[in-house]
Amino acid sequence: MSSPAVEPGTKLAERFRLEDRVHESGGATLWKAIDEVLARPVAVHTFDPDFPRLNEVVTAARVASRLTDPRLTQVFDATEDDGHSYVVSEWVSGESFGDMIAGGPLDPERAAAMVAEAAEALAHAHEANLAHLCLTPEHLVWTAGSTVKLLGLGVDAVLGDVTSDDPAREDAEGLGRLLYAGLTGHWPGDEQDSGGLPVAPMGDGHFCTPRQVTAGVPGYLDTIVCRAMLPETRRGLDPLTTPAEVAEALASVSRPSPLPMPTPMPMTALPVAASRSEGIDTVAPQRHTPPPQHTQHTQHRQMPQQGGGMVNKVAMTVVVLLVMVAVGLGAWTLGRSIGNAGTPTPGEESTTPTPTAAVKTREVKPSSVTGFDPLGDNEERGELAQYATDGKESTDWHSESYDSADFGRLKTGVGLLLDLGESVPVKQVTVEFGGTSGGTVELRVGDSPRLDDMSVLQKINGVSGKKTFTAEAPKKGRYVLVWFTKMPTYQGNYRGQVLEMKVLATK
């Protein structure tokens, strides 16, 4: 008896409702589905009854489900039966590596960082004897949660009937191809696996090296690609034959920003309506203070016992009356002072400060952002400048790397220049410098992009994390310059970095 047809709306295991058919090939269909128990989207592979490798794909999925690396797609369920056979896995939302490089190569270090994450995840999988064998730009994703995710481990190779006598080496070469694509925007392989990227140019019967295709590729990354997947150009270097070796070669690159941590809630007073059952006191504890004591303590003097008890009583009465008069006079004086507080006497000006109105500001978006190196022969990584104001701290502008904090005494500084499009009264500039440390930076403002024509708004030593530059009085200018006069340290070198910056001007 044939199994019922799988259509949109079909529910598997009484919880996975199939919704959209994403892809179909060779008797296997990929669906976007809803896990109705946990109310979340999932990816589901279903198979025709005569699918030839059903047992192999279910076995591979079950092995993958035991892996714990968060960079690998999580497998939730894998079932093989006479009715519906299926594999349920994590639904990953984000931007594929192919989409990211469709318009051209990435910043070299960012491309290397993503491939390094994939290499470490694959090394973990190979320890469990599970290979990928099908690495393409569409299998590597920068997720909506700002993490790297590798799709299709084990399962895609079985679906495509791909095998290898040396799976570790095959995956090492696949990682090399991914890095090549990220550095050049070209795919060094078959066109059907390119994800729409142009195929890499050839020379002398083999693919050109990344540096031959794209200017500015660091030499050490070019070498890693050659060692992983271009045997003709290794120049006597040992090949990288496993994902673990590729991961080790890329271990020194800085990694992409992780999932942003939730912003800590400010430590403000809790509302009175909050529940006390949570163990939080919502009413300030009452302090049992002693009753106020008079500040004019009189020493007890023992009255001489002249004339017996009546004399003592009279003397005590006089003392009490004197004390009462003194207290009453003091209270009247104090009350008069309080009553006159804030009311100037004739001919006298009030000393009560007049509240100052808060200065209203607005954010000014730059019309252009460029690297700034007036004493150099380039724009100091100008191709990355746009990332300093794109609203994403996962991207950044950074300078060239230097061997010393003083630029080898070849120049006085480098920086990042914002053109605001018009002259505005700049009040405050916030800059996120990221993970650098040390160094010195000046925030300059002016109506001319020449260094000497811009005045220094503020100077900060110790360039790390988020810094705020504030002018006592708004400084008018069209150009804002983050000017590094002493480079901070970064990953063992000296390099300036700006993840994000914001300019506020008075209204």
TrEMBL record:
<keyword id="KW-0418">Kinase</keyword>
<protein>
    <submittedName>
        <fullName>Protein kinase family protein</fullName>
    </submittedName>
</protein>
<keyword id="KW-0675">Receptor</keyword>
<dbReference type="InterPro" id="IPR000719">
    <property type="entry name" value="Prot_kinase_dom"/>
</dbReference>
<dbReference type="GO" id="GO:0016301">
    <property type="term" value="F:kinase activity"/>
</dbReference>
<dbReference type="InterPro" id="IPR008979">
    <property type="entry name" value="Galactose-bd-like_sf"/>
</dbReference>
<dbReference type="InterPro" id="IPR011009">
    <property type="entry name" value="Kinase-like_dom_sf"/>
</dbReference>
<feature type="region of interest" description="Disordered">
    <location>
        <begin position="282"/>
        <end position="307"/>
    </location>
</feature>
<feature type="compositionally biased region" description="Low complexity">
    <location>
        <begin position="342"/>
        <end position="356"/>
    </location>
</feature>
<feature type="region of interest" description="Disordered">
    <location>
        <begin position="340"/>
        <end position="380"/>
    </location>
</feature>
<keyword id="KW-0808">Transferase</keyword>
<feature type="domain" description="Protein kinase">
    <location>
        <begin position="16"/>
        <end position="303"/>
    </location>
</feature>
